[in-house]
Write a structure and sequence with these properties.
The chain contains no helices and 3 strands. With about 60 residues, the protein is mainly β. The chain has a domain of about 40 residues. A 3-stranded antiparallel beta sheet has the order 1-2-3, with no helix packed on it. Strand 2 and strand 3 form a beta hairpin. The protein starts with 16 loop residues before the first strand and ends in a 10-residue tail after the last strand. The structure holds zinc ion. The site of zinc ion has 8 residues, from loops. This is Putative nucleic-acid-binding Zn-ribbon protein. It comes from Kribbella sandramycini.
């Protein structure tokens, strides 16, 4: 494990993503977590992260 893993789209290997955050209601079974979505700029594949700080600092 590395602290700053490189991130690439599993489909097209693109390394640029659009970031969106969303709060999930009870449909996902929990209410307190913000979910971060990273959307591949190339193919629109969506990566889901439940705690972005545990993945990497995108800012
Ligand atoms: Zn992609």
């Amino acid at each position: 494990m590395t602290n700053q893993p490189s991130l690439a789209c599993p489909l097209c290997s693109c390394t640029t993503f659009s970031q969106e955050e969303s709060r999930q209601d009870s449909a996902w079974g929990f209410t307190s977590h913000r979910m971060t979505l990273l959307i591949c700029d190339n193919c629109r594949y969506v990566l889901h992260f439940y705690d972005r700080n545990s993945v990497f600092d995108f800012d």
